[in-house]
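User: Could you walk me through two proteins back to back? I'd like the raw sequence and the structure tokens for each, with a short line separating them so I can tell where one ends and the next begins.

Assistant: Of course. Protein one, sequence then structure:
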Amino acid sequence: MIPTSITTHVADGLAHLTDQFRGQPNIQAIATAFLQEVQTLENAIQFVIVQRLIQNATGIQIDGIGSIVGQPRNGLDDATYKFVIQARIRAINSKGRPEDIIQVGALATQSAVVFNDNTSVLSWELTTLQISESSVPLLGQLLFIARALDTRGVNIYSNWSNSLNFLPSSVYGTGYVQDVLSTVYGWPIQAELVAAQEV
């Protein structure tokens, strides 16, 4: 939350002068000089606060925020790095609830995610569509941080958007993921690349 900026220090201060000092030009001039300094300080503090917000930060300011939360830039552009930092912050503050996993997945990938906690083998499953292969390790790290202690999960991911037309594979074997997708989601399994990452 951004503190409200006060832009009327001079007028407010002069309005608080007692009757004996109102209308005294020398007193008003001295008070105005001091109050203008207070206003300058207020404006500078507000500028620093606003520029340190992740949505307004650029370049080295974003690097500083990333350093605070333990997320290296790894060559990402500013816009992508902001989303990754926000996902890291969300993962750090996670309680391991389904909505936490969903929000971390959505923030990290900027794409649609489907969460299922009714799997027979795993504690939960997150399906991520339209994700680049290079984003998968980072998403795995963030989901690991966000998950509840002693739970297991899997991220089933695809680099294209048609969720109804792919052939998955995973550490549990293609058949396992096909069964999950066809029985749990009711998705017909045809052919395309998908993979799974245990978290």
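----
Protein two, same layout:
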Amino acid sequence: MELHYMLDTLSEQTRLDGGKVRPVRHDFSLEPWLDALIEEVRPMAEDRGLTLRLHGCTEVVHSDPHLLRRLIRNLLVNAVCHSRRGGVLLGVRRRGDRVRLTVWDSGPGIPPEQQERIFGEFVRLSEEGEGLGLGLSIVRQLAEVLGHPVGLRSRPGRGSAFSVEVPRVDPAPGWILLVDDDDGGREAAAEVLRRVGFQVVAVAGPFEPPRHWPAPALVVCDYHLGAVTGPALVADLRARYGVLPALVVSGDSATAGQTVLPWLGKPLNPGLFRRRVSELIAQ
């Protein structure tokens, strides 16, 4: 296991043991969040000749994204460390009012009598195991802090599937769709709006809301979104919803003259951003 993962694990365990971890929950889209997490762990999998795949991730959930990320990262790293062939799959499925995230590995499996013990501190089932034996202990402790049930299905010789269930969210009328492929900018803008009570679904690229969702009250999008532009994305959404207020944001001042949509420059001024959003929704 890479040294920085081991150091992160020790630091995480210390904070959990000290009772210093407090969740800060809000609604967020799994899509950009999981995409980034998969890309973080992929080099580790490829170094071992393993594939790492993600299946289904368009849901919106209510949790602490930073703590949940650490939990899922530990499950992915654990799966990579114990898989000897094939690959690892992270699957996302809706289950009523919850979303189940499951990590399947192709490892040796865990005997039934060991499946509770594996979540203890400094536990490794074989001398050949990698790491400090803290990863799954941290998973359980983070799950308890978040109030998210953790599950395990495993058969010796058939691999294991670790899962966590997270509350699912369907946006209420008045929600805002925020589209920005810059992770830091997207989360900062979303936090500005959440602090004044807006429900925000923040995604990294073109996003088609599920059919049962109400129309967004506003679309906030960066001008440059990889292969598409923000105005083109707004046009696609308006073809579905009809009238739909929109605000384009960009660090490229030249784009202000390339769209008829309302425009704000980056970096965003929080007060001006909030005021412009409120004005557009009120129109």
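The domain at 3-167 is CATH 3.30.565.10 (Heat Shock Protein 90).

Let me know if you want the two compared in more detail.
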